[in-house]
Amino acid sequence: MGRYIVKRLLYMIAVFLLLTFLLYSLYQLMPGNRAFTDAKTDAAAYKGQLPPDELENKFQELYLKYQRQYGTDTKNLVTLYLRWWGIAPFYDGKCNGIFQGNFGFSYEYNQPVTEMIWPFMRNSMIIGAITQVAVLAVTIPLGIRCAYKKGSRFDRGAQFVSLIGFSTPSFITYIVFIVFFCSILKWFPVSGMKTAGTNFTGWEAIWDTIKHVTLPVICLVFSSLASVTRVARASMIDALSLDCVRTARAKGLSEKVVVYSHAWRNALIPMVAIIVGGFFGIVSGAMILEQFFGFKGLGLLFLNAVRQSDYDLVMFLQVIYTFLGLFSNLVIDLCYGLVDPRVRISK
Q1: 75, 105, 257, 275: least CB-packed within 10 angstroms?
Q2: Helix or strand or coil: residue 111?
């Protein structure tokens, strides 16, 4: 087990470096130059005070100064990438990258990315965690019951409802739910994480957050209901036809023990990727939902950063997503070995 984990970690590091290099190279090709923009802004202050030739020379001087400050005074992509990590030195001989705690600066928010990202991540994690728990709490029992009652009215009805959720675009679902629950019934607020203009504390703040979070969670659960339920149902149907389940029934075990002890253990194998991947996907946020409900989450933050060409922030978010994607694959593989003893993960 330990040897396997070490090998996978080395593999993850190699893939992580390759992916971050490709992403960094891509963003270097994007329009936008911090050094040029800052030099242009500073040079504008000398307009009218210097002749055109001297103004141009001043701009070039400022441009070179900011290039050296930001470490972009070279076109060598490998050197730029190593400076971003904090391995290669800048013009002054000092390193100032990730290894030194510098993950970049957001010009849109005028602060280091590590200082401004936590409130957005917290909001995404609140919505994502509640949604994932609700999805699993609803879909797994529903999938098991549909499989056990295969072909019944309950099964057909559940499949019909889940198919509606699967085939309806998410933005249509959000619009319908907002109109019905917010405009007509007035049960929930339309947007935000808290009531505007309030300063609630304690239980009042918690209750206010619950009211704002409930409808987005309902929307996400409805949208995820179909895919997860159908996977759980199909897995359970296959598990109920296994020889070990027939043997358990032949021994006279109760149906509850047969279903939840023998069949569900085998049905859990295809569900591992959905369950584990869903929890790691919590941090990524939901762009469309966050736009509709006005949540300041990572999905909306990423979209705004791309629109504003805030590439330091975009790159930092991409690094988080890349790491979580690779790490979740490792956890999924380890969980396969725990769920199914036939899966050997020691080699």
Answers
A1: 75
A2: strand
Question: To 10 degrees, the CA torsion angle through 227, 233, 238, 242?
Answer: 140
CATH number of 118-339: 1.10.3720.10
Q: Give alpha helix (H) positions in the chain.
A: 2-28, 34-44, 52-70, 77-85, 113-116, 118-148, 153-167, 170-177, 202-240, 243-250, 255-257, 264-280, 287-293, 298-307, 311-339
Give the C-alpha separation, 119 to 226, whole Å. Answer: 31
Q: Please report, as a single letter, which amino acid is at residue 38.
A: D
CA separation for the pair 312, 323 (Å, rounded):
17
Closest CA to 228 of 274, 269, 283: 274
C-alpha span between 99 and 78 (Å, rounded) = 16
Half-sphere exposure of 318 (CA within 13 A, CB side): 21
- pLDDT one-digit tens code per residue, 227-276: 788 888 888 888 888 888 888 888 887 878 887 777 877 777 777 777 77
| Separation of CA 122 from chain center | 12
Say if CB 282 and CB 273 are below 8 A apart: no
pLDDT for 307-319, tens place per residue? Answer: 887 888 888 888 8
Contact 242, 235 (CB under 8 A): no
- Provide the b/e sequence for 273-311 (b: ≥16 CB within 10 Å): bbbbebbbbbbbbbbbbbbbbebbbbbbbbbbbeeebbb
CA distance linking residue 208 with residue 240, whole number of Å: 44
Sequence length of the chain is: 347
Residue spans per domain, the chain: 25-112, 118-339
Q: So what's the pLDDT on residue 46?
A: 81
The two tokens of residue 220 are 């996400």
- Residue appearing with tokens 């149907």: 237
Per the CB < 8 A criterion, the answer to whether 287 and 303 are in contact is yes
Residue 47 φ/ψ, nearest 5 degrees: -65, 130
How many Cβ atoms sit within 10 Å of the Cβ of residue 77?
A: 13
Higher pLDDT among residues 165 and 172, named by residue? 172
| Backbone CA torsion sign across 228, 230, 235, 237 | positive
* Cα 158 to chain centroid, rounded: 29
**Can you tell me which residue has the tokens 């206010």?**
208
